[in-house]
Amino acid sequence: MSTTAPPKDITIVGGGIIGCSTAYYLTRHPVYSPTTHRITLLEASSNSAGGRTADSIQDPATLADPTTASKKNLAHDGIAGGASGKAGGLLALWAFPQNIVPLSFKLHDELAKEHGGDKRWGYRRCWASQVDCKARLPPGFGGKSGDGAADPVSAMGDGASKGLHKDHKKDSKALKRLGAPDDLDWLDTKESLGGYENMGTPDNTAQVHPELFTRSMAQLAEEKGVKIVTGARVTAINKSADGKSVESVTYEKDGQEATHQPTTDCIVAAGPWTRRLLPEVPVTAARAHSVVIQTPKPVSAYALFTAIALPTGFPTPTPQKARGTAAAQTPLKKQQVVEPEIYARPDGTAYACGPTDNVVELPATTADVEVDVARCDDIVYQVGGISDELGRDGKVLARQACYLPQGGPFIGEVGGTRGLVVAAGHTCWGIQNAPGTGKLVSEIVLEGMARSAKLGGCDPARVL
Ligand SMILES: Cc1cc2nc3c(=O)[nH]c(=O)nc-3n(C[C@H](O)[C@H](O)[C@H](O)COP(=O)(O)OP(=O)(O)OC[C@H]3O[C@@H](n4cnc5c(N)ncnc54)[C@H](O)[C@@H]3O)c2cc1C
């Protein structure tokens, strides 16, 4: 590999985890030089508050230790405003697609070691498990559930909060019988747990706080020369007259149109918005809701893929096609199974997400994402029905929504146009696969080809 490279003007579209990781790895590539390479990252949103209810905590960094909190860079509010700031953050060697997963899992580990990721973005090894549970009724939903489980509130009586907690004290015998580990002590094993299966161990599973990771990638890239512009929504990628190469990028900022010229290389990392710039790349979008709950004390490091049976009388989950419905408050007439995912985090919180929906079309930017509070409440009720730490004793810090990019991942040149690269459509493993994607894109742009892993099915050529 040559140690010098021709001058390049590289524009990255999108300040999610893929765009920011790409910016980071471009600046760490052996041929990168801030004097010959101008790198600009354009992010459409200028704040990250969109997609969260007004009463939600807006800066998760404040929950972690004070040194982490100080990492917040106000100038870059808008970075990680979409799925990259509202995902679970699970990393796994057993994720997909397998051609890039091992590279990216390894890079996550290296990044954490190099930059203190344990403190800075909550990196740690963890367990992943599948649990079958039966929910208890939440407060205010009847004295008895349809299948005979006692209503915890009716059963409580005055000052019984402690007693109830004792009543639900995790029974290590029951855990063992089910094959569940002793330290999964924040799940109600006595009444709720029906089955446990291990999916991942700390050898092959880890986690990050995705918003803090993404912001850190942005900051670390900026320190090496990347210019970050937020509130800049790209409206067109302009090509040469013969259509064979990229020439410039047009964007809107503060109501004005501007052109970023020249642009020799344009990397489209616009997540679920990618198709609006590259209609030929089949990335689709689905909305997903999630909540962040502060637990009375940090809970042990598990990611739980649940199947929770809701008894009759439980608040009815919002129907798939309903918009902002009050149906969540109506008691269920017959049992229903739901599958929220729960991720314990080292900052004293747990994150939980629900199913996707297509009720509200993808808006213009992350700042305009509509949150359906009823869908967030569904998740709160459901996870609270199997854990007092998440329910009765927990405090909901954030109710939020974002759009999951689907269809890919697509990583590579977009047919026939020199300098036009896509990195998008990462499905439910975009946090896991971001460093690998960033590294591969840096190689494609600065060396002409991906070297660290085979693009395989990620190569857009397979669909274009
Ligand atoms: C509920 C949920 C849980 C998840 N959990 C996990 C998990 O545990 N582990 C995991 O690996 N993955 C997880 N994911 C998936 C992961 O969040 C995504 O794959 C990843 O965040 C996608 O990153 P991105 O940068 O491509 O997209 P985004 O985060 O959507 O970022 C795209 C950015 O591009 C900007 N943009 C769009 N259009 C333009 C434009 N025209 N001009 C300028 N900027 C533009 C947007 O404003 C946005 O900031 C989860 C996703 C969801 C929804």
TrEMBL record:
Can you supply a Gene Ontology BP term from the record? retrograde transport, endosome to Golgi
User: Segment Disordered: which positions?
Assistant: 48-68
Which residue intervals define the domain FAD dependent oxidoreductase in the entry? 9-51, 76-443
Extract the InterPro entries matched here: FAD-dep_OxRdtase (IPR006076), FAD/NAD-bd_sf (IPR036188)
SUPFAM superfamilies found in the cross-reference section: FAD/NAD(P)-binding domain
What's any one GO cellular component for it? late endosome
- Name it: Uu.00g125330.m01.CDS01
